[in-house]
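Suppose you are handed a protein chain with no further information: no name, no annotation, nothing but its sequence. What can you learn? This example shows the usual starting point.
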Amino acid sequence: MKIAYVAQGFTLTLRQLYYQFVSRGLLPNAERHYKQLGEVVNNGRLAGLIDWDAIEDRTRNLRRLSSWRNPAELLEDAAGQFRLDKWADQPYRPEVWIEKDALVGVIEGVCDELQVPYFPCRGYCSQSEMWAAAQRLGSDRREAVIFYLGDHDPSGIDMSRDIEDRLRTFQASVRVERLALNIRQVRDYDPPPNPAKMTDTRASDYVRQFGHESWELDALEPAVIAELVRDAVTGLRDGPVAPARRRGGVGPRASARVRQAVEPPHR
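A reasonable first move is to predict its three-dimensional structure. Written in structure tokens, the prediction is:
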């Protein structure tokens, strides 16, 4: 299972891996089995049986300033990041927002390919980020569209409504489309359920509409989530998206010219 996801270009979190086991009937959906899987994965990594890069922890990252050995190396990096805006002549300006930072690894590949910005909300989005989004999207001549992906639970369902309402408060006209998780997708893909959190202040309305079960976005196959994003974004375009130039795409001749321009002559 892990090898198949790596081959598809996905790096999963432990929780995503756990839900793939649950959805296949290999593990019961219970917290103690999640912890047991964590122990198995940890032991497998220490024993050299599981690649350390195959599972990621997106919540803990080292932060440091970038550095280069010389000016030429800096210019090469800058040239490698050059891209034209493939949405500049389009009538829409899409962004993909996702509830959990842990799922960014699932959407970043397809978003980079389509040159669409993506943003992990980490639950209800902060007021600072909502204001910044309103300034960014509200000042654009194109129609702004946010594709939102989140859990199907009392708060997760409400978050897409909250985004649209608060952007409107900041006078930004933005269309928010809930891409996932929706009840139709729950019926189509049959992800493992969890009890709805009854201590959530939104639980009573949720239970009236959907019952006492809830579902996490993590339980969907990564390929399914990526394809949902691809279909939604490409459906907005007038014509296909040209392939984006990869980072570090400067050829040998260009690299030599850059070095010649910035390095002092040898004496």
